[in-house]
Amino acid sequence: MMTHSRWQGKHVLVLGLAKSGTAAARILKQLGAKVIVNDQLAFDQNDAAKELQQEGFDVVCGEHPESLVHEGLYAVVKNPGIRYDHSLIKKALKLQIPVLTEVQIAYDIAPCDMIGITGSNGKTTTTTYIHDMLVGGAKTPHIAGNIGVVAAEVANQASESDIMVVELSSFQLMGTDTFAPKIAILLNLIDAHLDYHGTRDEYIEAKKQIFMNQTKSDYLIYNADDEIVCEMIKDAKATLVPFSTKKKVDGAYVEDGYLQFKGEKIVTVDSFSLPGEHNVSNALSALAAAFLAGGNIKTIQNVLQTFSGVEHRLQYVTTKKDRKFYNNSKATNVAATVTALQAFEQPIVLIAGGLDRGLSFDELEKELTNVHTLVSYGETSELLAEAATRAGAKAIVTETLSEAVPHAFRESNKGDVVLLSPACASWDQFKTFEERGKAFLDAVYHLDD
């Protein structure tokens, strides 16, 4: 593990445990910090807190005493999901105490370069692409961050011959102050997580943290087709590397039927393995990062031609009676579902629904031109059915996802795509979008042939 004088002897409050908080507490202690841990779950039900206490940590559970935040505190390291209107966070900010996430700790201690990936959609696919493209190269790639692997833990085990490929949410980036990856990627921006950030401007400022501390010796790969992104990167000091599916740029682009990088033809569009322009866009950003990180062209080409996608993200499931089933459970907002719909030329039976956040489905309604039937379920089932009817599609309302799948199969025709792309969060019926996706897979595999 690398040492870092920043944390030596400093008083630090770790707020919220789960995987990231527990890892942060242990690493901070190794770095010589004086750590106190605070978690909302009562101690008698809190296995992580019990373990930390046995390891000698001061642990406070079941409440959030304001006395935990005081002028002698160096920093609060919080779980990314904890909002900034939390009482202890508000007090820390008032006292001008830094509020950080474990991503900053990861950056502080990492002995190797980092590639950081952010955007409203496509982060996990792009992160996985880059990792696979760098396998077998000069540096050993390690996936970390919002994709499910705690970045600080990966950094703690890394060596100089490694490279970290880190998926980063706005929640994580907002809690950084010196973070500056060697290669940053900004994929796209839509209005998202405004319940957390409060305003669109705050959300944008959080995303900009991925490049705000970069210098000319670093790279910022950005989406030249996204107007918001192009406006954002005007503040960047890094070397800019654009990517585009629509025009030739000084980076990665599509021309003459090829995915290209700075004039070099990489693979043909026809041999590219995933459906949809959005996946071409993700791939362009990934191949740019892989080349800049010293990836092998043969490996990059092979990945582009064979990559089968990431689970729950426009994942091909199976074909039954000439109907192709796709699992896009990760589509927790309208924009992600619109992107999925645009990926297919075939007629679509769309399965959608989930948590009602009081949002409009007007933008989805405009994109239902290729959807002949929408099968809805959950809290938003009626609203989605109304949108489908207005768009001229057949609407079928069900209560649960397991009921929706056989309805969708019966309504489909040979050559159709049956697509789960909910356009809503999963929390009305499922704990996570992964759980929702697995329920879809189960329902598909149990359909009568």
Automatic annotation (TrEMBL):
Reactions the enzyme catalyzes: UDP-N-acetyl-alpha-D-muramoyl-L-alanine + D-glutamate + ATP = UDP-N-acetyl-alpha-D-muramoyl-L-alanyl-D-glutamate + ADP + phosphate + H(+)
Tree of life domain: Bacteria
Domain Mur ligase C-terminal, first and last residues per copy: 312-424
Enzyme class: ligase
GO CC field: cytoplasm
Binding site for ATP: 119-125
Family: Belongs to the MurCDEF family.
Protein name: UDP-N-acetylmuramoylalanine--D-glutamate ligase
Gene this protein is translated from: murD
